[in-house]
Structure formats: structure tokens, C-alpha cells
């Protein structure tokens, strides 16, 4: 398997990070982010160390840093919020480049930017080294209820099918001269959304019928044993362990 | 394997819960290894009949048996192993993240695991010429390829009878021919539901005509298609330029 996987975010390589069990990677990523979030915001050096750890990880996985950096763009809308904090914050103010900014707001903004960026970078690396089906199996191994992973799996599978349907419906609208300029002209779009919902619902019924016809009796068969060995878990947990150490040190040497 | 026909439908009548009566006493038999077309206009009850064959719907009256085993709630699992249905839209049938996992879904539900399961998956994909796509997600395949994988998902269960719902719909001529070659190469009983009369003629020596919940004709496909009156009475039409006289000669 593995030939021709072309998921949007997955970058196929032959690295130890790619080979690692998905459940180990998920747990490691989650714990790493926890450690990052638990770090005091004043400990600039700690965030530097985290960034270096992630950069090292990307290197081991053979992921090009510019590509990863570009993917960080998804967090921009959240960062926009952080930018407002120093402007509207209360309390003691400081002059920066001629702007009067709230000290507390600056700290809060830095806190969000640093931790947010590290968190997003972690998930960017996870997504680049793990195909979506494997992520789902990893979540299953981590005892996420089968209903959740099942729904997520169907969502991934049918996202393209539904997007295609949306596209065809749009073309059909445009072909009949529909060119909305104002919000009150959006009625046709709303109607299309309703139709799409009904169609998807009916498709759900047909998919279920096809599943039942192939012997489905309420639970998805587990096809592959993805159990991780102790060594695999230990290797994966090195990263969050290092991060926890950094976070603990940061608290320890805090003035 | 027990003796007797692959599929026996005996006086089957069925009404949907909303009161709409879809089948009015349908009876026919299909022998082992036969390839039979089920022809009929939209709304004739073809799909309803198909769903009776694997117990998704159970008849209000009459009886359906697959290689001797009656379709009843007690042994639906075995019935669904014996009857493989390929649905019209492959996107409804292929729901797992990869082709191989989807093909494995049926046999895994039957309890197969490990090497045995892998052999089944490989054999089924080889039968439809899709081995090299095993690891791909279904939505990255062409429509014709998805239809072939849909056939493989059912073949992997090693069914006694393969039922195809409109197998040629939306296929381009080359995919259509490829599928025909695959189907004629299979050593399995086939019931093919279709409006595509030339395709029925190409693949199935025998045809059943269905209209308004009843079987209205049963005979050699070539003869039925040459009978203009029969076709007209059942809202069936040959494509433009098709010569019924040429059919009689077959």
C-alpha cells in the first residue's frame, strides 16, 4: 500500500516519523502541545527550544521548512485577534514605535502568537507525515469512540463527492443567468444548500444499504492490527518528555 | 454447494410501508452460471426486486431462495454472502478510505482476517484489473475504475450470484466494453438490471422483462428485443439505428 496516496496535506517520505504508529504520533503531538501551553509566557528561551525541537523533527522527516511555513498561514485569522489585545488592553502602557500599547495586552498577544504557532506547527508536521486514514486508525487505537472515527472517515471520504455536487449546482445556477450581487439574491444559494442536504441524506441511506448488503452488522471490521510496541511508544514520547522538561525548568527558574 | 437453481423467486409480492405496492407476485428461476438481464422501465419494481434477493426487503407474500437457502431473518448473513449486489452509484458503494480496505470490508464482515483476507482482496482486485490501485482512495479513481472496484468489493465475498444495478450507466464506451469483458470472464451467476438493451444483449443470453411489478416476458434476449410490440408495451426502446431483424438472426 501507500502507492499514490495523494492527500492534500500528506507529504510522502521514507522517514522514521512517517513510519511511526499514528496513535503514538497523535499522543506525542497532544502532550507536546500541552507542555507548550503550560509554559510560562515570560520564558522566551523555552519557546525557542520548542521551535528548535519542531524544526529538528521536520528535518528528520525530510519536510521542507518553507512548505511547512506556508501552511502556518491557516492560523492568521486567529492571530488577527491577538493583534488587537495590546491596542485595546487596560492598565500600564508602553510606547512601541510611537504607539501606546498596553503592557498586559502585549504579553497576552505574545502568549497567543507563540503558543498558537507552536501548536499549529505541531499539527502541520503531524498531518504532513500521516495520511488521513492512518490518523483515523490512530484515533481508534486511542479509544476514541468508533462512532466519531466512523463519522470522520465518512466525512473525509465524501467531502470530495459533496464538493463536486456543490460545484455542479453552482454551474447549473450560473448557466441559468444567476449572478447574485446582493445578499437578498442569495435565496437560490440557500435553496441549493437545502437540496444538497436532502441529497446527502439520501446518499447516506444508499451507502448504508450498500454496507448492509455486504454484511455490515453495526461495527466496522478492524482490518489491521496497528498495535505499537513499547519501544515505539518510548521513541514517540521522547518529544513530549523533552518539552515537559523544558516547561518544568521554565517554571523552576522563574523569578 | 447444494443442487438446484442459483436464484428462485416464487410468487413474491411486496408493498412499501406507505402502502405503495411495488411487486405483484413475481416468479422466476435462474440456473447456476446463467447470465440473465432484468429489463424494465423506471418504476417497474426492478430495484425493489433486487433488494428482496438479499433480504434488505422481505416479501409480504411469496418466497425467495438463493442456492436453496430461503431468504429469512435467521440467516441474512449467509444470504448476503451468497448474493452480491453492485449498486448503481459506485460512490454509494465505496466508502472506505482506500480501495483495498473497501474490498476487504465485505469479507471482513464475514469474519475473514489476515492472510486469507488479503488473498481474497488481491484476487477480487485482479479479477477487475485494479490491483495496482489497491492503496488509492476511491475518489481519486475515474468513474469507470470506481465501477470496477465496486464489482470487486462484491466479488471478494465470493457470491453465488452477482446482481448488478445499471452496470453500464455513466460509463464511456471504452469503460463499458472493459466492464463487459470483465463480467463475461467471471465464473458466476449474473442478474443484470438495466435499461441498456444492447448491453443486455451483449452480456446476457436470457432476459426477463418487468413492468408495473410483474414479470411480463422471459426468454432469449435476442428474441425479446426483436419483438417490437413487447418492447412498446413495456416502455422499452432500442437505441436509434438498431436493427431488430439483425437480432433475430442471433
Q: Architecture of chain B, according to CATH?
A: 3-Layer(aba) Sandwich
Q: Give the name of the CATH superfamily of chain B.
A: P-loop containing nucleotide triphosphate hydrolases
The main pleated sheet of chain B reads as: 6 strands, mixed
Q: What's the tally of helices of chain A?
A: 10
Per the CATH scheme, the topology name of chain B is Rossmann fold
SSE arrangement of chain B, N to C: EEEHEEHEHHHHEHEHEEHHH
Low-confidence spans of chain B: none
Structural class label of chain A: mainly alpha
Largest sheet of chain A: 2 strands, antiparallel
Give the integer mean of the pLDDT values of chain B: 91
Distance between the termini of chain A: 54 Å
> How much helicity do the residues of chain A have?
55-70%
The overall pLDDT of chain A, averaged over residues, is: 86
Distance between the termini of chain B: 34 Å
Question: How would you concisely characterize the structure shown here?
Answer:
The complex is a heterodimer of chains A (255) and B (250). With 255 residues, chain A is mainly alpha-helical. Chain A has helices at 16-19, 22-37, 44-60, 65-71, 76-88, 103-129, 132-141, 146-175, 187-213, 230-252, and strands at 93-96, 99-102.
